[in-house]
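Q: Can someone sanity-check these two? First one:
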Amino acid sequence: MQALSEEERYYKPDNFPKGLTRKVVESISHIKNEPGWLTEFRLKAFEIYQQKPMPTWGFFPQFHVDIDSYVHYVGANRTKKKSWEEVDPEVLRSFEKLGIPEHERKYLAGIEAMNDSETVYANVKKELEELGIIFCDIDTAIREYSELVRKYLGTVVTIGDNKFSALNSCVFSGGSFAYCPKGVKTPMPLQAYFKVTAESSGQYERTLLIADEGSEIEYSEGCSSVQDKGTNFHTAVVELIAHKNAKINYTTIQNWKKNMYNWTVKRGLCEEGAHITWTDCNIGANTIKYPGIILKGDNSTGTVLSLAFAGHGQVQDTGARIIHIGKNTRSNVLAKGISLDGGINSYRGLIKFESSATGALSHVKCDGLIMDDHSVSTAYPYNDISGENGSLNYEATVSKIDEEQLFYLQCRGIAEDDAKVLIVNGFCESIVKELNVEYSVEMSRLIRMILEDGKVIAETPIANTVGPNCS
């Protein structure tokens, strides 16, 4: 029997068909020239993906998403650039609209930009290298730091955790990798930008951040899409590992188009005395996402700050999952959801105390703000308390925009539209204030744009409204 040629065995980089098959998975690994252990990792994930059914709980049954209708690898053979001037002019113009050059000038940070399935711009500043900090795209890390990636990949979010962790594990392309050595703190936020441009495509970045003992990582990412035709699909997996007394602060602002399905798995592991904060802002898309923290070590702590906007035809099903294992662990969840123009916003959270988690303490607060008579805000908390001597506090509020507040502000000479923006900004303030200055300003502009899009206020020209994550 004659062996297949390479062209017959693998898809060409620029000719991937729709659908997910073993050949698609093998072709991605072949194009990236990956080590054998990673090819096996992908193929094992593909087998698990085939075996696991689509979820039937929550909002999943309403979406009717056919994953085989998407192209799962787009934009192959893009050469990574070391300077901004080397980037293809079309990509450059696109990312300039997202504000990346401005961010680079202000933060002098190492920046990674991903367009569809490939990282197109990566730059690690000398200051990071001198501190021993590794920050690069995941494909580079697999080649240059293979043993480090192999040690941690799939340890916090396992291949078989759910259907979407398996999906990402078999076709992931692009994403961030960072390692911070013992006792070192990142001197500026590490930043990444993920952008979807291709029609009917999936984006599957994989992010892995490791903070060694006593170190601290601050990481920020922005996501956007520009395609109005058809739908797009996004399933990322993010794994955070915070070793003893380490800290990781992870911020996401996702500003997708409304035709995006965003089903992402994010989870962190805290060893003794470690801390992880997720700050998660969701705009656009139909989102199902619950950043999680496993408080494994004694005296470890975790915080989830979640902000979601649901507009016309949108479902934002977001929240948090925190598992207390170690002694004297602490967690805090603050979730804010705004529903307008018929949108559905829901908080779905899990707080679990294992029997070993003596002295555990958790506080959960979720607030919903409804902007009209036909939008929805709900909460689905699930609390599992197995241990003793622990304390859990949960509170939730749902309210409609206050007509008396509007009247009061208008009596003080503030126009009705501006008054609505002030009220929504005030509602979001406890989360927005945790963002760095640039992202905080960006969120304030985005809030006005969201209210305009939902016809809550009239469209008004605003200077410099196109920031790092606007499309």
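And here is the second, same format, sequence then tokens:
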Amino acid sequence: MRVRKIPQRTCVGCGQVREKRQLLRIVRTPAGELAVDPTGKRSGRGAYICPVPECLELALKHRRLERALATPLGDAVVNLLRETLSGAAHG
């Protein structure tokens, strides 16, 4: 029996390589909108981040998330990401 390969992705915040399912995907859709992608299957350019607020803050401080998505992040998107990650950390 073949062993399935588990997809690996790198967090844009801390740079740690983890399983794709352990990371949160942020996607820029073809229409240009930014969204959190819990399924990991939406079409568009994606960036992965650990589901902890510290990694998000690192990615924002060094503008890694903007670079990975090739688009500027608005305050509304940053606030949405902070709320999502603080909810994931507590829940």
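A (reply): Looked at the second one. The chain has one domain: 8-90. The mean pLDDT is 92.
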